[in-house]
Amino acid sequence: MCNKDLFFRDFGNGKPIIILHGIMGSSDFWAPTAKVLSNKYRVLIPDLPNHGNSLHTNTLDYQSMTNIIEEFTITNNIEKPIIIGHSYGGKIALQMAKKNNIDIEKIVIIDITSGKQDSKNIEKMIKILSHPLPFISSYKQASKYFASLTDDQNTITLLSKGLKRKGKQLRWKWNTELLCRQYSQILQPITLPTQCHIPLLLIKGERSDYITPSGIKELQYSFSQLRVASIANAGHWVHVDNFDDFISTLESFL
User: Fold this and answer.
1) Longest Cα pair distance anywhere in the chain, in angstroms?
2) Does the model's pTM come out above 0.90?
3) Are 235 and 205 in contact (CB under 8 A)?
4) Which of 61, 99, 190, 222 to pair with 166, CA 20 to 30 A apart?
């Protein structure tokens, strides 16, 4: 579905959940999670601006992204949503809590906190995006090409999902020029609300280095109803590395 240039997937009925994917992600990456949750909830997953099938903008900053998602909730008559955000999407969720323009029932942030991020992980991806994409005519060929650049299977899958067919070849869906030029905006910290009573669940991957004790402490200071859960045998892509435990943790909180 598409609404005002924001493409989204819509599953199930009931209390609304909005899932915000991470940088260089897309809505289809979260379809397995949505299908499970749709047994009890209505789950909407937009392609964030500059990703998937959504509009391209001239910025990646969190304020602009928050404005667009807030407009999305108003346009689609979504009341008291539960917001789930992974990485970049998690920071957008925190920015929404800070702005407090819409009534949010609960928030789940996945493997991210509010602080300034280390650049090394995203720079690996940006380095791949900065190379001119060769002529690729199939997703099998794309996987083989990306495997020559990285041995991380999650990254290979993510990169492959960032492609779409244009004529006889596959091209990027993403606004790669903007991502390469302004990726530093993604790394910037979010200023948290002084005191927020929205229930917040932080899900971290046991093997991930994205979450620091200081990051958790900042969330504890701002969110009076913070819960932290660690998912065993999972890295940054928690929902991929240990899907069953991730879903169990998520459903328990919801």
Assistant:
1) 54
2) yes
3) yes
4) 61
- Class of the domain covering 2-117+190-253: alpha beta
For the chain, give every domain's residue range: 2-117+190-253, 120-182
CA 13 to chain centre: 22
Give the pLDDT confidence of 13-26 residue by residue, as tens digits.
Answer: 999 999 999 999 99
How far is Cα 43 from Cα 38, in angstroms, rounded to an integer?
6
Q: Which amino acid is at 177?
A: E
How many other CB atoms are found less than 10 A from the CB of residue 48? 29
Inter-axis angle of helices 153-161 and 139-147, nearest 10: 140
Name the residue type at position 119: S
Q: 185 vs 37, 95, 228, CA distance in Å?
A: 31, 14, 26
Determine the 3-state secondary structure of 18 from DSSP.
strand
Q: Is the dihedral of CA 52, 80, 95, 214 positive or negative?
A: negative
